[in-house]
Amino acid sequence: MIHTTFSILSGGLVAGAVYALLAMGLVLIYKATRIPNFAYGGMASFLAFFHYNLVTGRRVSLNLDLLYLHIHGGVTVHLSFWAALPVTLAAAALLGWFIERLIIRPFAKASMVTLIIVTLGLNLLLTAVAEQVFGTKDLVVSNAHAIFSRSPVLSLGGVNFTYERLGVVAIVVVLSAGVWAFFRFTATGLAIRAVATDRDVASLLGVSVRQLSVVSWVTGSMVAAVAGVALASIVISSNPGLLFVLSIKGFAAAIVGGMVSFPIAVAAGFGIGIGEELVRQTIVQHDTKLYTGAPEVLTLGAVIVVLALRPRWIFKGIRDDEDTGITGRGGGSELFLVRWIDPVEAYRLLRAAIPTTSPGLRRTTRGIRIGVVAGLALFAVTFPFLPLPAFWTLPANLTLIYLLVVLSFVVLVGWLGQISVAQGAFLAVGGAGVAVCANTLHLPFPLPILGGVLLSIPVSILIGLPALRLRGLHLVVATLAFGLAAERALLPRFSEGGVRVVLPTYMRSDRALYYFFLAVTVVAFVLAGRMKATRVGRSFFAIRDSETVASAYGIRPVRVKLTGFVVSGAIASLAGSMLTYQLGALNAGYGSVAFSIEWLAYSVVAGITSIAGPIIGALFFGLYPELAKSTVSASNISHIQEIFAAVLLIVIMAVNPEGLASMSRFVRSRASAHEDDDGASDAEDLAAIEAAATAERHLEELPLEADADGDIDAEEAALSGAPS
Amino acid sequence: MTGRPIISIAGVRLSFGGVAALDGVDLEVPEGQIVGIIGPNGAGKTTLFDCISGFRRPDSGSITLHGSPQGDVELTSRAPYERTALGIGRTFQNARLFKSMPIRDILRAVQHDRMKRSGFFRSVLGLGGSVLDEQEVTDRADEVLELVGLSAHGDKPAMELSTGMLRLCELAAVVAVRPRLLLLDEPSSGIAQKETEALGPLLRRLAEYLNATLLMIEHDMPLIMGISDTMIAMAGGRVITVGPPAEVREHPEVLTSYLGAKATA
Predict the structure, then answer these.
(1) Mean of the per-residue pLDDT values for chain A?
(2) Residue A563 is nearest to which of B120, B191, B204, comparing CB atoms?
(3) pLDDT per residue over B236-250, tens digit each?
(4) Whether residues A618 and A698 fall in one domain
(5) Is residue B184 part of a domain?
(6) What does the alpha-carbon distance between residue A16 and residue A37 come to, in Å, rounded to a whole number?
(7) Is B128 left (phi over 0), alpha (psi -120 to 50) or beta?
């Protein structure tokens, strides 16, 4: 009994200490800047790899070949563990400063949704850069390079405590005390507390919000370095993906602390660590097979429950972001790139350069659009008969599936305004549905796909339920938790267990399968387009723009949100069902949270609110890389594409959150907005009221019970200057 | 004056952390009238609107809507969207709308409750009368757009409108819902004085078009005196007096608490 208690404590404390560290850093940044830093795991893992490379003496090389830019360079460094630490901390400080200055500052006034997408994009960027620079191989910490000796120092109740474990816990305790003292006793700490309470008032009282933002990002980044290094040294083997997964638990702990309370966040970090260990040891004793994913499911499930119940003591310090506003165009235009290339100026230059009048231009652009659509349609229909190399078959089918993946994001994020990073989990749900229907129930071919879609409905409602009470940041964390639970618990059961599905013979030809997928995709798009244009779509937009106003006009947030979750989940499971047939079995890579985040980023870049977005997204980020993968050997896969997409994502969020697909409309509206700035808006207001006055005269002709008061009418017409 | 109330408010209290925003409000709003509410800042006017439209729940007291499709209905436990269905419409002090949607779409979106033949599958597949529903709400949207004179701007997203046009658009949206009781929270705020004078007749006309009772909060005295049939003065979370505009204006407590305060400001 004592043995168990101590071994749970010993294992749980160490993991918990790391979660607590991550939670601390997140709270620090959130308190000072109100930014939920979803890139924190990426920062920690980047810095852990940086440190690891210094210690192992791996050659750090940079090879870039982009158009005219050829950079080939590398240094081999080899430092001892402790010598590498200050270098890593310095690099962390630099990284924090760099991120704050270049990426975060332009978004100072952006909406919560924008901040979430930007930091998710930053996470993608950091992970991809880490993989590009340091390689995708797992980081393996040998005993010699470990942070502390693994030899036992003390034995309690038969459990050995090592220096390593005690050391990590000691670091957390010392750092927590330091952070607590920092907030309690220093002027900067006081300033951050002031900013956390009320940003505007604090800045009126002379607190430099910008300076605090820098301080918090630099310090937070250094905390991330410590957490990353500590984590890397205790888990023995890790990769960026794993570190990200672990950082989500740090996020969960920070959330339990309401993102603002250090003591609760630290305690919650330890709680999650010990809880997981408890679950692990309890279940392993009974059944090892059951263990897969169980700690994640239980602890993250607990976090979702905490979030959904929203106890007062947690959430009193949290501002409730009313307008999720993904289409909010305010904010981010201070990004340095935008200052260089003003889209409005560019548009004016373009207009000046093209001599045609505006209707002509509109005809031309419309002609181009119709041409492109017709060309794509022709290509899609005739594709199997085109003289293309055989390796095009798989990428083409996958592209059709990616189209649906992006569409599911468009429906949920773009139209309904709810961010979810659990879409990958729906691919897995679709796959699981297909596997069960085909192998267990022995249903004939197209039916298992339907089964996969139907299975998604209860799952969507399950995910949608927390969404009824959660917004923005909390919703993302809840879906992260769900996605992670699915990735850890659902995927291994269906992908590694070798559950295979077999197509009937008549579908085994490449052409048959391609046309089947094409037909399904086209139908899904047509129906989604119909939905957008009718009552259901309009309710989505209303909820997206403002839940409060929507309910003032009789729209039911609960019903509309659940509908959106179900539709989006069904589309993603449809993609998952098709994918399972395409690959013959469910592939774990497609169900992960990382896959969801990556495709969320691609969807936003391509155009999250437009039905054209998925086409751009699937072609650029689906077809092209899949083709590249088919031609290049697996070891040569570059992460440049992900890096490019992540940078593009951040720029797009700064310029136009609606993405590439609506760029032309956006530029037009910006141009007209500039014109409004020149003319007084009063004049326009007056014109509007004038028009109203004129309209009233029309109204008298309408068969209405209009008890017109002639005096008022005349008076009003005189006032508004309308000719009577 | 019909005398018959459309809504009865009895003993409504609501405090925020010890401060009584509403300190026992008793009020009957006569049906078919234009009723103006005046009062200094912090008098509890908007809080009262929030209680009627369901965005805040009073600590105690009752709010009863008379003559709704479901008869007399006690409102306090109903969600905002249920109250909309019962015939209560409201606008917001800062003209809040769905900022990214084109105006015509906003006006169609707010009529979704009218689209009885447009369930999810029927709308998406275009079956079972949903096309007719679409046509009806589109016609209605165009009619309301014309009513407020925004026909030329139907395709503009709300966020591109000036404040004055946004006000008109908000009025159009709430009219499109066809409420029996229309709550307007400072319809003149944010628009210039000159335009405010044209607003009065427009509001009167909208009330007539809907055949609705109009309850409005307004700081612009000429506007509210000009169009109200009955005026209510509030201060300190309480109703001070109710009566014809001329009487209310001369009421001694109104003079001290509201106009007096305004004069010194």
Answers:
(1) 73
(2) B120
(3) 899 989 999 988 888
(4) no
(5) yes
(6) 20
(7) left
- Residue A716: domain span: 679-720
Q: Is residue A326 part of a domain?
A: no
Q: Minimal CA–CA distance to A38: which of A191, A251, A268, A236?
A: A251
ipTM computed for the complex: 0.89
Statement to judge: residues B131 and B198 lie in one domain: no
Q: Is residue B7, in this structure, part of any structural domain at all?
A: yes
Residue A366 one-letter amino acid:
R
Q: Which of B90, B125, B151 sits opposite A552 (nearest CB)?
A: B90
Residues A695 and A628 in one domain: no
The CATH number of the domain holding residue B214 is: 3.40.50.300
CB contact under 8 Å between B130 and A556, yes or no, is: no
Q: Which residues of B touch A693 (CB under 8 A)?
A: 149, 198, 201-202
Summarize pLDDT for A674-708 with one digit per residue, the tens.
444 433 344 444 555 545 544 443 333 333 333 33
pLDDT digits (tens, 9 = 90+) for A328-350: 333 333 333 344 444 444 545 55
Q: Which residues of A touch B147 (CB under 8 A)?
A: 695, 699
Q: Tell me the two tokens of residue A66.
A: 């982009």
Q: Which pLDDT band, with edges at 50, 70 and 90, does A502 fall under?
A: confident
Q: Where are the alpha helices (DSSP H) in A236-261?
A: 240-256
Residue A194 in tokens: 């002031």
Given B98, B123, B191, which is nearest A535 (Cβ)? B123
The burial class, CB within 10 Å (0-12 / 13-18 / 19+), for A383 is middle
Distance CA A347, CA A388 (A): 38
Chain B residue numbers touching A113 (CB-CB < 8 A) = none
For A76, A170, B49, B214, B219, the CA distances from B185, given in Å and listed in that order, are 69, 58, 8, 11, 10
